[in-house]
Design goal:
With about 170 residues, the protein is α+β, with helices and mostly antiparallel strands. Helices cover about 30% and strands about 25% of the residues.
Length: about 170
């Protein structure tokens, strides 16, 4: 199991400009045993080794939000199985759309009427011990987004930490 610690969003992350307006933000880091992994490979490994309870929570979330007219985003395991280097900006990756992609950062997003989510998977520590930092920022647009974030804001850190702990990275 990987050690996962609270972190700050790296200064070079595409998410830094969003921080001032974020309604929710967290960041978690873990050492990389394999510093050659790309951010996309890190995300795929974390998604593929996610505990079953995360899939159950996503299924419950999707059922609830369909009842009130919000978007069913699918499941974290919805990755197509393509090779990591075949993904491009605009492709779907699990529940997200790829919004940005560099050698050190994968920027994922979901835009909905009630809120926008951005997730950065960033490799850091060049010159030192390599690590991965996963940062999440949510911008809320409507009152329903604030209501939605009450449980999600508490559960989200548990999900990210569980995925990073189990990932073979």
């Amino acid at each position: 199991m990987n050690e996962v610690l609270a972190a700050t969003t790296p200064g070079e992350s595409a998410l830094r400009s969003w921080l001032a307006h974020a309604d929710f933000h967290d960041a978690w880091s873990t050492p990389l045993r394999n510093g050659a992994l790309t951010p996309t490979e890190i995300f795929l490994r974390a998604s593929r080794t996610a505990p079953a309870w995360i899939g159950w929570l996503m299924a419950l979330r999707n059922w609830i939000v369909r009842q009130i007219g919000l978007k069913d985003v699918g499941s974290m395991s919805d990755a197509t199985g393509k090779a990591a280097d075949a993904y491009r900006i605009g492709d779907r990756l699990g529940i997200f759309t790829i919004m940005g992609l560099t050698a050190n950062e994968l920027l994922l997003g979901i835009d909905d009427s009630h809120l926008d989510v951005r997730v950065s998977v960033m490799k850091t520590g060049q010159g030192g011990a390599p690590k991965c930092v996963v940062s999440t920022i949510v911008l809320v647009h409507k009152w329903i987004g604030h209501v939605y974030m009450v449980p999600v804001g508490r559960i989200h850190p548990l999900v990210v930490k569980a995925m990073l702990r189990r990932a073979e990275i």
